[in-house]
Amino acid sequence: MPRRNPEGRLPGPLGSIAEMSPARRLVLALAGIIALTTVGTVGYMFIAKMSLIDALYMSVITISTVGFGEVKPLSPAARLFTIWLIIFGVGNAFYLFAVVAEILIEGRLREYLGVTAMQRKIHELQGHVIVCGFGRFGRVVVEELLRHSIPLVVIDSDPAKHEELSRLDVLHMCADATRDEALEEAGIAQARAIVVATGSDADNVYITLSAREKNRRAMIHARGESESGMRRLKLAGADHVISAYQRGGMRVAATILRPSVVDFLELATPGHGTEIDLEQLRISANSPLVGRSIATIEKETHKFRIVALKRANEAISLIPDPDTLVQAGDHLVVIGERTSLKALAETMES
Prior knowledge:
By secondary structure, the protein is α/β, with parallel strands linked by helices. The protein contains 13 helices and ten strands.
């Protein structure tokens, strides 16, 4: 066995061939087969006095080891030439088969196994988020959900975007989200929310209709490009419709008119402030906060305020009464220091 150099490479030509890509090795193997076939054909024509067709036939069956038999009896010189052709030709043929197998196994099989493993993980998800479209809007949504460790699946029909999704270690599907099968494969029945973020209002309306039909409970957040598109998305069953251009324009205008308010909102954006967070807490049935008043909770938590309360089908209550008792199923919108929110979350979990 050839010894490797200190860098772990084989010496000389062996090392150069081993470092080639499978495609280049395939070209090299094919060139070797063609060269040996040519040499064999010419050799049989001169040594065994065969015609071009017979010489080519002998060369092919000898290199491929088919063994159909000799076209005509061979002289000792022709038999020695055949032995030489077998030694070099069979080795080259096996090398060609090995390279082809490597390309098939490392390419198609790896791709198949990767897709199969990803599909299995997707089918095991419960309470995840489906993001349809990985453009600029969808990418921001995905990055924010990943930052909070929210399980999600991305559906996008552009193969070029799936390399980036693989680097981000995001479960994804190369499919058309307007097709019912794509939503079903993404686990729409078990999803808690779906973000419809393609660049087409028509596609977004169709996806929203399909998603609402397949999951009545999931929250649907849809992107709208036009006023008519936003209206149709609402009619199709979207819970929240967002226009990135409208929202961005309003934020710029607000920055000009009320800069201090905008600075506060930026500070209170979940996870982006230096010390303050604005978060939503859902009160479970076994939470220690059940039955306690808002005033008591605020008093026991350092630098912490409950700014809104959403209860069942009631309208959201801003700055709820301090004597209001928290109930199971309530949603509290709270603002406070990040350390205080973290301590409260740990109390709720315990």
